[in-house]
Amino acid sequence: MLELLRRWWKPSTPDRDPLALVASLPLFQGLDGAALRSLAEDLEWQSLPGGHVLFREGDHADALYVLLSGLLGAYRQQGEGERQIGVIEAGETVGEMALLSGQPRVGTVRALRDSELVRLSREAFDRLAHHHPKATLHVARLAVQRLESAMHEPDGRTPRSIALIGLHPDLPLRRLADDLLHRLDRFA
After folding, report:
1. What percent helix, strand, coil does the chain show, rounded to 5?
2. Which helix (DSSP H) or strand (DSSP E) does residue 52 occupy?
3. Any idea what the CATH number is for the domain that residue 15 is in?
4. Calculated CA dihedral for residues 85, 87, 92, 97, nearest 10 degrees
5. Which value, to the nearest 10 degrees, does the dihedral of the CA atoms of residues 20, 23, 26, 30 take?
6. How far apart are CA 56 and CA 64, in angstroms?
7. Residue 76: DSSP 8-state
8. In a domain, 115, yes or no
9. Is residue 181 part of a domain?
10. Percent of the chain scoring above 70 in pLDDT
11. How distant, in Å, are the alpha carbons of 22, 32, 40, 143 from that of 19?
């Protein structure tokens, strides 16, 4: 698996070692070298183009994922459509709640941008839990934090991108954008 990760690793970071990647992920920090090497062998690298679905609400939980780059959206069925319930950013996990509970997926996860992930299968997670229970506790804490966060954020969404579209050629779009940026900086 390490060789596969090396082949997939982005050319912009040719010196990155897959083992170093695993060690750098918050989910796996604190594991010893042997556990990290074993884990690096179990991880599967996945590319998910923007717009594609990682898993659907109601699917069987067969893995958890760590987002390395890109952006994912989490959605729940609501009436005839979907409602976005969250955003997963680089470095965050997704799918851990269903993996821990053994219940079907509670939402659909879709790539909002081209994304790179690593997948940890249920079998690999169970081995990790058996040999390194502390890692399982860390995953459970992440799941609880995500639930608590969802309870404190009414819609769970914050703007990620803002587009200004000039409807008239004489509109001072650059000046408006600069002014908007300046005003938004006050809230950061």
Report:
1. 40, 25, 35
2. none
3. 2.60.120.10
4. 10
5. -160
6. 13
7. E
8. yes
9. no
10. 82
11. 5, 12, 6, 24
Asked if residue 20 belongs to a domain, the reply is: yes
For 8-67, the pLDDT digits (tens) are 444 333 345 678 878 887 777 777 888 888 888 888 889 999 999 999 999 999 999 999
Is residue 93 one of the residues assigned to a domain? Answer: yes
> How confident is the model over 70-114, as pLDDT tens digits?
999 999 998 888 999 889 999 888 998 888 888 999 999 999 999
Rg (CA), the chain: 19
What is the pTM (predicted TM-score) of this model?
0.69
Three-state secondary-structure class, residue 30: coil
Q: How many domains does the chain have?
A: 1
Residues with Cβ within 8 Å of 86's Cβ and at least 6 positions away in sequence, in order, are: 73, 74, 107, 146, 150, 156, 157
Q: Helix axis angle, 33-42 relative to 122-131, nearest 10°?
A: 170
What domain range is 33 assigned to? 2-152
